[in-house]
């Protein structure tokens, strides 16, 4: 990406921090990771993609969250408990027979950023998510209570997870 394009993206993201990352990436012909890197430094942290399994198993202990898989063709959302998983046959396998289950190609997840941005889906309210960047990885959003506020217990776990796996930018 040219430095002028990069400056334009940085300005755009500073003015629109709640923009849908995948949409901005597609419109600007860059990766979701490139878009996340241009968010204001106080809004995002990055950790190694190798932490995907450990992070997902941590999230499995949080209770009800929203998991979103966003591709060019679909936005699939699941709200509920995320099952623990394990690596086998080249995938991170979500291990439960009903509810959310399946297989995620964890090795393609290039980073595990933790972000703190307003979300279009939550009517510009503050949200917190762990976003796994790849062609079609996932985002896990901290749940909300009956007043639509972020759940305090999950918010603490979110920040603890970010401290454990992310280091080069602050949430």
Distance between the termini: 25 Å
Global structural class: alpha+beta
The spatial strand order of the largest sheet comes to: 1-7-8-9-2-3
Annotation field: number of helices: 5
What composes the largest sheet?
Answer: 6 strands, antiparallel
Shape annotation: globular
| Poorly predicted parts | none
Which percent band covers the strand fraction?
Answer: 15-25%
- Quaternary assembly: single chain
What do these coordinates show?
With 171 residues, the chain is α+β, with helices and mostly antiparallel strands. It is built from 5 helices and 9 strands, in the order αααβαββββββββα. The chain has helices at residues 3-15, 21-28, 32-37, 52-59, 152-165, and strands at residues 44-45, 64-70, 75-81, 85-88, 91-94, 102-104, 114-118, 126-131, 139-141. The chain has a 6-stranded antiparallel sheet with strand order 1-7-8-9-2-3, with helices on one face. The longest helix has 14 residues, at 152-165. The radius of gyration is 15 Å and the shape is globular.
Layout of SSEs?
Blueprint: H1 3-15, H2 21-28, H3 32-37, E1 44-45, H4 52-59, E2 64-70, E3 75-81, E4 85-88, E5 91-94, E6 102-104, E7 114-118, E8 126-131, E9 139-141, H5 152-165
Antiparallel strand pairs: 1-7, 2-3, 2-9, 4-5, 5-6, 7-8, 8-9
